[in-house]
Amino acid sequence: MAANSPAFRAGQIVFGAAVVFFLVAPIIAILPLAFNSSVFLNYPIESFSSRWFVELQTSETWRRSIINSLIIGCGATALSTVIGTLAALGLRHARLPFASLLRVMFLLPMVVPAVVLGVGMQILYTRLGLASTYLGVIVAHAVLCVPFVIVSVSASLGGIDGSIERAASSLGANPATVFRRITLPLALPGVISGAVFAFATSLDEVVITLFVAGPNQRTLARQMFASIRENVSPTVAAAAFLLIIGTLCLAGLAGLLRWRQNRLAKAAASEAG
Amino acid sequence: MSGSPARGRVSALLLVAPLFLFLAAFFVWPLAMMIAVSVTDGTVRQVMPETASAIRSWDGSGLPPAQVQEALIADLRAPSEQMAFGDAVRRLNSEVSGFRTLLGRTASAVRDAPPGQPVDLAGIDPRWGEGRYWQALQRAMPNYTDRNLLAAVDLKRDTDGSIAADVSANRVIMVRTFTIAALVTVLCALIGLPYAMIAAASTGWVRNVMLLAVLLPLWTSLLVRTASWVILLQNEGLINKALLAVGIVDQPLQLIFNRTGVIIAMTHVLLPFMVLPIYSVLLGIPRNLMPAASSLGASRLRAFWHVLLPMALPGVASGALLVFMVALGYYITPALVGGAEDQMISSVIAFFATGTANWGMAGALGLILLVTTTALYFVYGRLSRSPNMVGA
Q1: Which sequence spans correspond to the domains of chain B?
Q2: Given CB atoms, is A113 within the 8 Å cutoff of chain B?
Q3: What is the pLDDT of residues A8-38, one digit of tens each?
């Protein structure tokens, strides 16, 4: 096999294209089905119709599940972003004892299998009386969201040039002013993208919800899970369509923030330097 | 940064404290509780406290002394909560079957007997004259037990206390879980390594498209991806229609509710976790190494084998660990795409917890999964020198 032989190049192109197709095609395939008038969740498309989106709004179960997802998602995002951002600020301190151990602990919820945590949460919630309550589901989701906030905020804090903060201090700004005028604005994109990750995580969470939520806290993801399992209704495709569009918007927002942050950090560094 | 060192430390601790306490209460505590439930065994002790203390000193041979029998009678006379009593009976019945009728008959006879007079247990039911019922009672008394943990790996304690094989399906499911996870890992490596190499070697829009194709699934809801596979793999789905149209098959292939479907869907879901670590390692390799190897006379295959592959291996190892670790705990995809024969350990845990309310077994199986996954995570952290999974 000679280097850069045409056959080798062609093989690379075919393989790469095939894998791209394998990765992307299934996600795209579900989108048109949201507009299919047929009652079967399958091709061919009989005719275009928005009936499944109407169903999403009018059916009590689906409507309720969307509202639940928004309530729980916002609650879990707010909770995890606040305590996660505080912790990321604390972890940044050089003098914090056991910093690396704490970091590992804060990231562990991402690693522990959801079913295991679900069993533990169910046992705990039964004793605490939190089972089948909104607060319980929000807290459970927040546990899963925290690692994403930590990672995102830590990354943006790590990108801050310490000399800017020292410069502000040397010019007479007190620590609170340095934090408010320098650190926080520079870290804000990381905080927001952490919140976006947190919301996306909560929106997609099924397993822990199965264990801790009651019928009143059924989320959109939980409802989709039940619908795929029991009666595959095309409403699932409509819900999936909304989720894909929603997450793409959120991903775009996070990407935009990251780009802006890089630009800001560069500008700040060049000014300070 | 500001103030004295001690003040800096205190403010850092104060910042970290809320999350630390939050995770201690709602992450560490639930896991500890699950482990505790899997090794505690207080149901019998709770309804028969006097018997518990009296039977402890019995050596297990013949029949227990009279004071144990009296303690049992006293315990049965004492009013007990219906549900707790039922739990205890169930627990004893699992040791020796027949305990349910034995205790039911004894309890009603004891309660009907006039108080203050001695009761002849063997007279109520001759089974009290057999040693094995008393031995079972003794075995069920301790607060802590290893029977759930042993049952999780298909073992049990014999009447003499030695560990012996037991018949159940847990070991089969564990082997199945590891097999599926390993197969998915291998497939991801076989697809992910060449893909990451092509992406790292390409430039401009080709590289962007290849990376975007990896990131898009990562961003898409897992449920949406699984729903897509359900649609594509079904008997009248697009894949079968295409295969029929091209004439490769005469009748639809069974692709869903079996192992094939689970493997395909899980490989799709986990492939990004393999590609990204390999890609980031490959980016760090100087681009002129391969041409250098070629210029020294190495064939492309030889240069790959001796230069690129050894340098890419740390990325493959991180990716493989990550995929394997995540795959072990998978629940949603096997639950929706797999059949009854493809359910992994997570499904069994969920079944014990929500289906039969057998917390002990759910906890024991959960403990095994927890320990395995955490151990793999620490190996992964060592390998990638950063305990940070996102954007690895």
Answers
A1: 43-143, 171-384
A2: yes
A3: 889 999 999 999 999 999 999 999 999 988 8
Q: Would you call B271 and A15 a contact, using CB atoms and an 8 Å cutoff?
A: no
Cα–Cα distance between A237 and B231 in angstroms, integer?
10
Q: Note the residue count of chain A.
A: 273
For chain A, positions 51-80, list CB contacts with chain B under 8 A.
none
Residue A2 burial by Cβ neighbours in a 10 Å radius (0-12, 13-18, 19+): exposed
In angstroms, rounded to a whole number, what is the distance separating the alpha carbons of residues B52 and B67? 12
Question: What pLDDT shows up at residue A195?
Answer: 93
Q: Is residue A137 within 8 Å of A221, Cβ to Cβ?
A: no
Interval B53-86: pLDDT, tens: 888 888 888 888 888 888 888 888 887 777 788 8
User: How many contacts does A have with B, using Cβ atoms within 8 A?
Assistant: 274
Question: Which amino acid is present at B278?
Answer: I
Q: Which of B20, B24, B84, B22 is nearest to B49 (CA)?
A: B84
Residue pair B38/B149 in contact (Cβ under 8 Å)? The answer is yes
DSSP string, B178-232: HHHHHHHHHHHHHHHHHHHHHHHH--HHHHHHHHHHHHHHHHS-HHHHHHHHHHH
Instruction: Identify residue A259 by its one-letter amino acid code.
Output: W
End-to-end CA distance of chain A: 51
How buried is B118 (Cβ within 10 angstroms: 0-12 exposed, 13-18 middle, 19+ buried)?
A: exposed
d(CA A133, CA B90): 31
Are B30 and A108 inside 8 Å of each other by CB? no
The reported pTM is 0.86
pLDDT tens digits along B342-389:
999 999 999 998 887 788 889 999 999 999 999 999 888 887 764 444
How far A32 CA lies from chain B's nearest CA (Å)? 11
User: What are the CA-CA distances from residue A36 to residues A33, A44, A229, B232, B250 (Å)?
Assistant: 5, 8, 20, 15, 28
Instruction: Tell me which residues of chain B, numbers 166 to 225, contact chain A at a CB-CB cutoff of 8 Å.
Output: 191, 194-195, 198-199, 202, 206, 209-210, 213-217, 219-225
Side chain identity at residue B139, one-letter code: R
Interchain proximity A16–B3, CB inside 8 Å = no
CB A92 within 8 A of CB A186: no
Q: Is A16 within 8 Å of B216 when comparing Cβ atoms? A: no
CB-nearest to B230 from A105, A114, A228 is A228
Please list every residue in chain B whose beta carbon sits closer than 8 Å to the beta carbon of residue A142: 22, 26
> Which superfamily does A60-272 belong to?
MetI-like (1.10.3720.10)
pLDDT value at position B159? 67
Class at the top of the CATH hierarchy for domain B171-384? mainly alpha
CB atoms within 10 A of CB A63: 13
Question: What is the percent of chain B where pLDDT is above 90?
Answer: 36
Residue B336: closest CA among B283, B277, B264: B264
d(CA B228, CA A25): 9
